[in-house]
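INTERNAL AUDIT FORM
Audit reference: QA-55
Scope: verify that the stored structure record matches its stored sequence.
Auditor: D.O.
Record contents follow.
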Amino acid sequence: MAQPARATDAAGSIAGHLETALARSLNSMTGKEFTVMAERTPDSVAMENPFIWQQTLSAHPEPALWLVAGRDLWLTAGELTLAAVGIDSATDEDCRSTWQEILSQTMGAFASGVTSDIQQEVTPALGEELQSEPADLAWNVFSARSDDGPPLFLKIAWSKSVLGLYDAPEPEHRPVAVRDSTFSKTFDLLLDVALPVSVSFGKTHLQIREVLKLNTGSIVELNRFVVEPVDVIVNDCVIARGEVVVVDGNYGVRITQLASREDRLRTGMAEGTRVGGAR
């Protein structure tokens, strides 16, 4: 029996975000060029010593995603990542821990993709390793390939609650109210007010002793993964999120998520009031 078109579209979006998120995480961690894609393969792919991961998302309390990677994948990804930072001899436990970090980054990027689709913030919640595969899941087989290397297979399943995120009702079309002429004139004046815009790559907290130890070449680790979007801030309010790009040699941000029009308007109105009061 064929799936409804909307459910099929949602499943395609989820699979696409998982492919992109895992590929970007592997690329950034290993320094290699990975391609991840869905495979038309039965869900009974045999995997030696699998790493089974269960992920919960903020939108629902129950588990939402499951990912199973065989030893060939988590060992290869772990060894490549550790070799990239100068560690040539890694144990299986080192590689499993590294694979868990890759999965954490993948879940963050996946949640950002879903957030952009449904215009409702979704973030990773609890993630944990399982000792055995959950029963009665509809597995989807994917492959991860590095450069000219052989395909390394993994299985991913998602719950109906994840599909349900794409079933939110369409927003009501409300009649446009006639604007008061006095408000219209005031609003037209505010449109010319210049607003300071800044971009936040992340935040952290340092003790005073740590601040005093900073010198040229020190690295301050922020609370955001490299694959996560940056915040676009106006008047201390996050009005959008996006990815960093380079435009004619200058940094820029390509917007991927926007705050509501009302929130953006409220931010501009607040600045306009301060400017008007200072005159």
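Auditor finding: record pair retrieved intact. The beta strands are 34-38, 51-57, 63-69, 124-130, 140-146, 152-158, 197-200, 230-234, 237-247, 250-258.
Action required: none
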